[in-house]
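Consider the tokenized backbone below.
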């Protein structure tokens, strides 16, 4: 067959050659060992925590080696695309501090970088130049098989328990003559462009995966689709052309792609292009029904699969990134222990140290990392972060902060300190909502009294306390007063004495405080009650105590 003629027949409009294109994508002038990495999502608008994980790792690798991290939008599947999907991806990554040196931009903005266009839908002609070249070399051919014919092949292979795919005797269009092709084209038949795979059954190739080491795999023998019937490339082909032209040094992607690696290996080889390095990362998993039943975090089933979950909950960005780094790198926690105050960017990350099998997403661990992160923040930073969070996720709190920034700043001290010590019990800003409720929203709607003390006794104590209450007390005078009021009513002022003979008392001073706490906050647990009373003010305190007597 005259392949040149066939190439003209299929790609008559293409005048440029592969060398013309390659000339426009010169090698990047970067230091030795600089890594060029990319994040290349489909513009579905949904940002999975696994995507953030991969993007964080890819950007880290580029940054620490003086390389480049870019964004490529893989929008070859129009069915999956949503409006402004790219904007949402860029925005949510930015929210987590992941930014690109070059690449696709939000809708309506211009791309940055010399290696674009960075949206695959804008690169149609480029792929066709490369595809034409393969046809000229006899390495690709048009396939006119209909969906029914392909289904029939699948059925036969299934029934005979053969390897699935378009290969060998099943590759019906492989042997079409130029005349037969011309005739089908004249009839207006649709076709896809397939690789003429040079692979042989029994041959092996090796995937040199940076994380997993060498993986031996059978060579690809299937005539995979390169261009779909609309001329748009498949992921396999687009990735090969793009990662080559854009100078990607290391492809970091999910391990669901390992099984396609032989195809990619072969495509680079037949195209005469240099293979990048590959790192296939294990997905983030969760336990589901039983000790050892792990599954991938699912977009459909798990709210925590979406990065928006973490923003809504009010996890500081730093907490999420620190946590993901502990998942990504077994050496990170030790480094953090030795360098408690260092910026995460100082950590040298190694792909080789990534977990080989799916790491479990552990919310308890995230919370514990986050408590440490928050404990290290200054009060000013906490105030700024909560204000920012409330702006988007808690409109009521937002109003309160705006109305009284001083009171808000005081409220941070309330949960942050235990005396002089910094407490570590807040992991995310939404945990504070309960507290904001009683600080800002007036008397609590329900009061969770400990029923151990009878209703009559509680009322008696509250009435006596209201009479004696002095808003000018300092914290120790305040405590003395609770004792003084409680003692004649049967509340033992000394906890030890109470514990030695509980039956001799109505309760202890701790129970007396509990009554006040429930009356003021509605809850059995709260930060320092004296401070809360000072914060809400005299009128409000007395109002709530009186209201509690009536309940
Ligand atoms: N668009 C592909 C995906 O979302 C990217 C895989 C890759 O990084 O090469 O899975």
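A designed sequence for it:
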């Amino acid at each position: 067959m005259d392949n040149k003629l066939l190439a003209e027949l299929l790609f008559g409009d293409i005048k440029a050659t592969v060398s013309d294109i390659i000339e426009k994508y010169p090698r990047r002038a970067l230091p030795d060992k600089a890594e060029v990495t990319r994040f290349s999502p489909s513009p579905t608008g949904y940002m999975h925590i696994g995507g953030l994980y991969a993007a964080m790792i890819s950007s880290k690798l580029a940054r620490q080696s003086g390389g480049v991290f870019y964004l490529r939008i893989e929008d070859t599947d129009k069915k999956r695309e949503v409006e402004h999907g790219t904007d949402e991806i860029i925005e949510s990554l930015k929210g987590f501090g992941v930014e690109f040196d070059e690449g696709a931009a939000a809708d309506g903005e211009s791309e940055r970088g010399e290696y674009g266009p960075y949206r695959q839908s804008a690169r149609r002609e480029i792929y066709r130049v490369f595809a034409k070249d393969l046809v000229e070399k006899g390495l690709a051919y048009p396939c006119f098989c209909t969906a029914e014919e392909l289904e029939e092949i699948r059925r036969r292979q299934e029934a005979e328990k053969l390897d699935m795919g378009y290969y060998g005797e099943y590759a019906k269009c492989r042997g079409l003559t130029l005349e037969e092709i011309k005739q089908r084209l004249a009839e207006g038949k649709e076709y896809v462009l397939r690789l003429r795979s040079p692979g042989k059954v029994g041959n092996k190739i090796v995937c040199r995966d940076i994380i997993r080491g060498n993986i031996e795999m059978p060579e690809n023998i299937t005539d995979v689709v390169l261009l779909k019937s609309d001329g748009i490339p498949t992921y396999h082909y687009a990735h090969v052309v793009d990662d080559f032209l854009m100078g990607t040094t290391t492809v970091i992607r999910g391990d669901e792609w390992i099984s396609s690696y032989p195809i990619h290996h072969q495509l680079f080889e037949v195209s005469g292009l240099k293979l990048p390095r590959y790192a296939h990362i294990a997905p983030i998993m969760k336990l589901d029904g039983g000790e050892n039943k792990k599954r991938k975090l699912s977009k459909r089933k798990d709210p925590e699969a979406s990065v928006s979950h973490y923003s809504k909950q009010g996890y500081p960005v730093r907490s999420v990134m620190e946590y993901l780094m502990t998942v990504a790198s077994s050496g990170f926690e030790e480094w953090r222990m030795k360098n408690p105050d260092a910026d995460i960017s100082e950590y040298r990350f190694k792909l080789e140290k990534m977990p080989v099998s799916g790491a479990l997403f552990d919310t308890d661990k995230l919370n514990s990392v986050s408590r440490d992160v928050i404990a290290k923040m200054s009060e000013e930073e906490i105030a700024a972060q909560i204000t920012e969070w409330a702006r988007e996720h808690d409109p009521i709190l937002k109003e309160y902060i705006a109305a009284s920034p001083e009171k808000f700043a005081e409220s941070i001290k309330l949960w942050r300190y235990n005396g002089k010590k910094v407490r570590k019990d807040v992991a995310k800003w939404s945990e504070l909502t309960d507290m904001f409720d009683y600080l800002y929203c007036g008397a609590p709607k329900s009061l969770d009294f400990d029923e151990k003390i009878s209703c009559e006794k509680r009322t008696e104590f509250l009435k006596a306390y209201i009479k004696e209450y002095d808003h000018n007390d300092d914290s120790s005078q305040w405590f003395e007063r609770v004792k003084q009021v409680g003692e004649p009513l049967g509340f033992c002022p000394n906890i030890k004495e109470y514990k030695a003979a509980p039956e001799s008392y109505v309760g202890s001073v701790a129970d007396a405080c509990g009554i006040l706490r429930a009356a003021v906050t509605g809850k059995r647990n709260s930060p320092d009650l004296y401070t809360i009373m000072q914060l809400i003010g005299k009128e409000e305190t007395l109002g709530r105590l009186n209201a509690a007597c009536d309940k």
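The two ends are 95 Å apart (CA to CA).
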